[in-house]
C-alpha cells in the first residue's frame, strides 16, 4: 500500500500543480519520513559492521528514495506475486540478438589485444580466456555501458522498499565499505539493482572476489580491463570451474530418444525452473550410445558427465552441458544467458 501511494503521488506530481496534490504530498512526505527513520536504524548496524563514521556522515544525509528503482524492481519476474506465470520463449531469437556479428567481432578484437594478459590469467586460474571475454561482453558490451545509477541511493531504496531487504542492506553496507577503501561515490555507479563495474559484480562480491590483474596493487573493475578479467576468472574459480573441460557442445538428438527415461528427478535449491529443463546426468559416451551426436567443437571427453538441454524443443539444436556450464549459471542463473556466453566464447576464440 505504501508503494502504491508513493508511485501514485509521483504520477500526480508530473501532471498537477503542487496546490492540487493534497494527499499526494502527504503520502510522499510520509514515505520519505519512513525512509529517513529507517536510515537512522541502518546507521547503527552499518557502524557495528565496520563502516566508518566519516563515510556514514558524508553519505546517509544525502540519500532519498529512488522511485525509478522501486518501479523497476516491481517489474521484475516475481516482483508482482499476482502476475501470471509466463511461458518460456524460444532461445533462437535470444541467441541471434546476443551472439551477433558485432559482439563477436568486438570480442575478437578485445581477445587479440589482451592475449598476453589473458593468457597469464588463464595459466593462473584455468579459466579460458574466451570465457572471461564472453562474460565481459555480455555484462557490459566490453565496458561500453556498466550502468549510471548511484549505487548508494539504489541499494538504500531496495533495502527499505525491496522484496529482498536483507540482501540489499548487506550490499549497501558493502558499498559504504568500498568508499572507506577510497573509491569515490561518483565512481560507484551501476545497474538499478546494484551490479557495478565491467563484470557487474555486486559490492559484496567485489569485497570477496575482486582481483588485481594489472599489478598496480588495486583491483579497479571500473576502469581496468585486466582487473575486471582477473576478477571474473577468480569468480569462476570460486564457483568450481574445472580446467580443461569445455562448457558444452551442440548436438543432434534422434527422434527415437525416450525423454521420459532421461528426465531429471532432482530439484535444485537455486533457481529450480532453470535446472528443471535439464536431463539427468550421463557420460558423453552414454549419450553417444543413445544416438546423441556432437555437431560442434570442442567435444568433452567420453568420461565427462553432461546433461542434455533442448532449449527450443525436440527437433532443434540441443546441447550437452558439463559441470562448467553450471558455473556459468552461477554467474547468472539463466539458461539463455549461459548458453549465449558459451557460444560467444567459442565464436571469439575461432
Automatic annotation (TrEMBL):
InterPro entries noted in UniProt: Lysozyme-like_dom_sf (IPR023346), MltB-like (IPR043426), MltB_2 (IPR011970), SLT_2 (IPR031304)
Pfam families linked to this entry: SLT_2
TM spans (from-to): none
Annotated keywords: Signal
Gene Ontology terms describing biological process: peptidoglycan catabolic process
Signal peptide (from-to): 1-19
Domain Transglycosylase SLT: 35-346
Gene Ontology terms, MF aspect: peptidoglycan lytic transglycosylase activity
Superkingdom assignment: Bacteria
Keyword Ion transport set for record: no
Protein's name in the database: Transglycosylase SLT domain-containing protein
The species this protein was found in: Sphingomonas sanxanigenens DSM 19645 = NX02
Amino acid at each position: 500500500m505504501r508503494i502504491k501511494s508513493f508511485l501514485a503521488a509521483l504520477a500526480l506530481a508530473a501532471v498537477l500543480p503542487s496546490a492540487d496534490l493534497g494527499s499526494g504530498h502527504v503520502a510522499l512526505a510520509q514515505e520519505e519520513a519512513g525512509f529517513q527513520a529507517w536510515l537512522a536504524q541502518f546507521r547503527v548496524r552499518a557502524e557495528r559492521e565496520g563502516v566508518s563514521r566519516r563515510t556514514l556522515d558524508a553519505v546517509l544525509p544525502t540519500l532519498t528514495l529512488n522511485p525509478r528503482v522501486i518501479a523497476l524492481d516491481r517489474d521484475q519476474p516475481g516482483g508482482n506475486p499476482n502476475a501470471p506465470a509466463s511461458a518460456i520463449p524460444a532461445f533462437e531469437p535470444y541467441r541471434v540478438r546476443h551472439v551477433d556479428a558485432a559482439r563477436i567481432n568486438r570480442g575478437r578484437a578485445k581477445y587479440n589485444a589482451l592475449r598476453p594478459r589473458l593468457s597469464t590469467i588463464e595459466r593462473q586460474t584455468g579459466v579460458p580466456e574466451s570465457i572471461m571475454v564472453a562474460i565481459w561482453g555480455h555484462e557490459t558490451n566490453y565496458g561500453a555501458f556498466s550502468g549510471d545509477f548511484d549505487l548508494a541511493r539504489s541499494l538504500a531504496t531496495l533495502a527499505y522498499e525491496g522484496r529482498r531487504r536483507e540482501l540489499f542492506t548487506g550490499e549497501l553496507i558493502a558499498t559504504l565499505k568500498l568508499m572507506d577503501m577510497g573509491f569515490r561515490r561518483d565512481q560507484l555507479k551501476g545497474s538499478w539493482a546494484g551490479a557495478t563495474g565491467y563484470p557487474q559484480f555486486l559490492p559484496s562480491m567485489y569485497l570477496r572476489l575482486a582481483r588485481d590483474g594489472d599489478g598496480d596493487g588495486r583491483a579497479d573493475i571500473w576502469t581496468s580491463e585486466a582487473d575486471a578479467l582477473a576478477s571474473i576468472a577468480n569468480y569462476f574459480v570460486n564457483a568450481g570451474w574445472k580446467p580443461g573441460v569445455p562448457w558444452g557442445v551442440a548436438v543432434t538428438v534422434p527422434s527415437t530418444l525416450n525423454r521420459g527415461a532421461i528426465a531429471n528427478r532432482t530439484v535444485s535449491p537455486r533457481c529450480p525452473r532453470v535446472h528443471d529443463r535439464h536431463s539427468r546426468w550421463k557420460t558423453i559416451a552414454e549419450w553417444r550410445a543413445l544416438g546423441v551426436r556432437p555437431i560442434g567443437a570442442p567435444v568433452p571427453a567420453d568420461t565427462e558427465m553432461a546433461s542434455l538441454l533442448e532449449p527450443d524443443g525436440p527437433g532443434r539444436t540441443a546441447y550437452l552441458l558439463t559441470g562448467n556450464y553450471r558455473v556459468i549459471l552461477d554467474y547468472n542463473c539463466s539458461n539463455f544467458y549461459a548458453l549465449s556466453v558459451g557460444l560467444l566464447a567459442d565464436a571469439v576464440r575461432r
